[in-house]
């Protein structure tokens, strides 16, 4: 098999700034050891997120120039709407400035105290918006999805036995809808099988509960189905994606992922009454229904990106690039979530630094060391992001896994950049026994990982 190459040519480049170890140590201290507080100019390789960090194509930039900036009835909106309807089949398309705005609108309508929202695994902003509305977020990952070292095809699946038990315990009136995140970001970027999506849909419809997809990485999930699930090898990624959406009643999407843009999102759904309520909130918080917090040029770029993401040459390159990073780390004995996910490789912090307890935030310690050693910015997905304090004991309630996500921006870095990441990760791993944990010295009441301040333990 020949080398899988980038299915594009590079037309424009952006310089990156090199820093010394001493400079990075000072930068870390000034940023309180939180990667979100480090200036972008001080980062060499930025793997903090794959959200909004993609390189747009020549045709997307052409769409930017052609965007119709009419306040109402923009031509660009109708292209945006047409592309999404053709892909998802949903009747109503509501643009928002990003995915969390779609979540805020949706849960403002359906969420309130006494309501429960199940999911295979909520990611950070989804959980925050559920809880901000007064509802409770519940995760139902499968047992295999909680085992980082276990290799399985669809570790992002919903635990259907646990979900049905939960529905019977709470009653369908307490559950306005169920979310299914594809791919499962908090669970290591792992895909969800078509069988699991179908069976989840069937169970929910039996109980009269709507299913919504968190669809920000729908194309990567569809590609995994094509490669791993029986009966889908001969189907196109578009056909597979359309089948995925056919089992749902709606979706939220951050277009900053699989629509290959730097800003934007949408809420799409079938229910007429829910759509009307959502549009009323949209007008108050985001903008008129035909722009929803976006410029016409953004709508054009999203529409074009949703066409380009379905290119199977691109998806082959994308998934293989992430696999390459995962394979090279494993070859060096570095523990990761297996197999590598679609958009990121996740270091298993529990096995990486077993001497650092969860209450000392092992993932945050690794994040700081990756930056100190090589200027690489990553993010903790563990007790910082998802840990809670027990109100009775005051002790930390940790999530099942302590991870560090190395999220790969789309069409941005070359193999030599990734080889550098591997070298730095290996250097950090060799010195792991010297690493110490972290303590939080200041934190906000919600989404603390974005702005919390840390100090290394002495």
What is the overall shape?
A: globular
Which percent bin holds the helix content?
40-55%
CATH topology tier name of the largest domain: Aspartate Aminotransferase, domain 2
The number of helical elements comes to: 16
Number of distinct beta strands: 16
The CATH C-level class name of the largest domain: Alpha Beta
Query: Which range does the strand content fall in?
Result: 5-15%
Strand order of the largest sheet: 2-8-7-6-5
Main beta-sheet annotation: 5 strands, mixed
CATH architecture of the largest domain: 3-Layer(aba) Sandwich
Query: Low-confidence spans: pLDDT under 50, at least 5 residues?
Result: none
Instruction: Write the CATH homologous superfamily of the largest domain.
Output: Type I PLP-dependent aspartate aminotransferase-like (Major domain)
Question: How far is the first residue's CA from the last residue's CA?
Answer: 51 Å
Number of domains: 2
Give the rounded overall mean pLDDT. 96
Question: Can you walk through the features of this model?
Answer:
- The chain has helices at residues 21-30, 58-66, 75-88, 99-110, 124-132, 160-170, 194-207, 218-228, 237-246, 272-285, 296-308, 312-331, 349-352, 362-374, 383-386, 415-430; strands at residues 45-46, 92-96, 116-119, 136-139, 177-181, 210-214, 250-254, 265-269, 344-348, 376-377, 379-381, 388-389, 396-397, 403-407, 438-442, 453-456.
- Strands 2-8-7-6-5 form a 5-stranded mixed sheet, sandwiched between helices. A 3-stranded antiparallel sheet has the order 9-14-11.
- It folds into 2 domains: 21-50 and 311-456, Aspartate Aminotransferase, domain 1; 58-308, Aspartate Aminotransferase, domain 2 (3-Layer(aba) Sandwich).
- By secondary structure, it is an alpha/beta fold.
- The radius of gyration is 21 Å and the shape is globular.
- The mean pLDDT is 96.
- α4 (99-110) packs parallel to α5 (124-132) and α14 (362-374) packs across α16 (415-430).
